[in-house]
Specification:
The complex is a heterodimer of chains A (about 110) and B (about 190). Chain A is built from 2 helices and 6 strands. In chain B, strand 9 and strand 10 form a beta hairpin. The radius of gyration of chain B is 17 Å and the shape is globular. Bound molecules: zinc ion. Zinc ion binds next to loops of chain A.
């Protein structure tokens, strides 16, 4: 079972209390973007076996969006952090590096 | 004028715990920046209570203030006093980016009480209800089987539970099934 700590409530929420929001830290391309940029924004997603960054919403709790860094193959959670950021905090990246040397995700490593 | 009644109008059930529709309860949703002194003093003037900490609820004999999210509080006040309190809030917070709304009739409120109350509720929510993990003074919004609900403890043997009025019967039935005679788990 996947359990994530909501960074706003501080409660460890069961997956059934949350709504998944897909991949984290997407750059939005809208009006004015090229067709290729818009295509990639809409369709191109990571599909890692391992470290992944996602958006989740504490739907049955405080209702807020947050981010989670976790491993898709083991359900290990490296950490959660608030939504008001465009990249993961350094302490979470350090934690992942300590546990999974050599990991990569998009341009992060 | 029609006479307001609560969703299940005082329904009761006695099993391994007692379930009771608590009747009319005044509820005000207050959204805004919880760090603003103006908001704190407005809450104080309406309820006499301070702001609860994250995930908490503060109560006295007449009401409560519960933390609902980083920008939302739930004020529990006597049903008949809601309009007066709303007017006070809206006056005090006229210059703040905030919202105060009467949600009393949008919700139902139940009590679940008795020495087995913890384990009856533990059958229905994905929350650790063991003594020490959940205690009076804590507010928990979660899911109860398939619907949204929130609860807190009045004392060691009593929970108060709120849900949307449209699912009041569903929640009451859930509680009565979980509290039926002979269904003790003795988990705690
Ligand atoms: Zn939350």
């Amino acid at each position: 079972m996947l359990m994530l700590e909501c960074p706003y409530c501080g409660v460890t929420a069961d997956e059934t209390e949350l709504s998944p929001g897909g991949e984290a830290h997407l750059t939005r391309f809208g009006p004015g973007a090229s067709d290729d940029e818009f295509h990639d924004y809409l369709f191109m997603r990571e599909n890692p076996k391992g470290v992944h960054f996602e958006r989740w919403r504490h739907a049955y709790g405080c209702g807020k969006w947050f981010h989670a860094a976790r491993a898709t193959d083991t359900l290990e959670v490296f950490g959660t952090y608030p939504a008001q950021t465009t990249k993961p905090p350094q302490e979470i990246l350090d934690k992942i590096s300590a546990k999974r040397p050599g990991w990569t995700w998009r341009d992060l490593k | 004028m029609s006479k307001p009644v609560s969703a299940l109008n005082g329904a009761q059930f006695h099993g391994i715990a007692e379930v009771r529709d608590l009747g009319l309860q005044g509820m005000i949703t207050l959204r805004g920046d919880l760090t603003k002194p103006k908001l704190k003093s407005a809450v104080k003037s309406v309820t006499g209570l301070a702001l609860p900490k994250t995930g908490g609820i503060l109560s006295d004999e007449t009401g409560s203030v519960a933390w609902m999210s980083p920008d939302e509080l739930l004020l529990l006040v006597p049903y008949a006093e809601v309009d007066a309190h709303l007017a006070t809030l809206q006056k005090d917070l006229a210059k703040e980016h905030s919202l105060a709304v009467n949600v009393s009739d949008a919700r139902a409120m139940f009590s679940l009480s008795g020495p087995k109350a913890r384990e009856v509720l533990a059958k229905l929510v994905p929350v650790d209800l063991s003594p020490g993990a959940f205690e009076p003074g804590m507010m928990r919004r979660t899911r109860m089987a398939q619907v949204a609900a929130a609860f807190w403890m009045m004392d060691e043997d009593t929970f108060h539970i709120i849900c949307f009025r449209s699912v009041a019967r569903y929640v009451f039935d859930l509680l009565t099934v979980a509290a039926q005679e002979g269904s003790e788990v003795n988990a705690f």
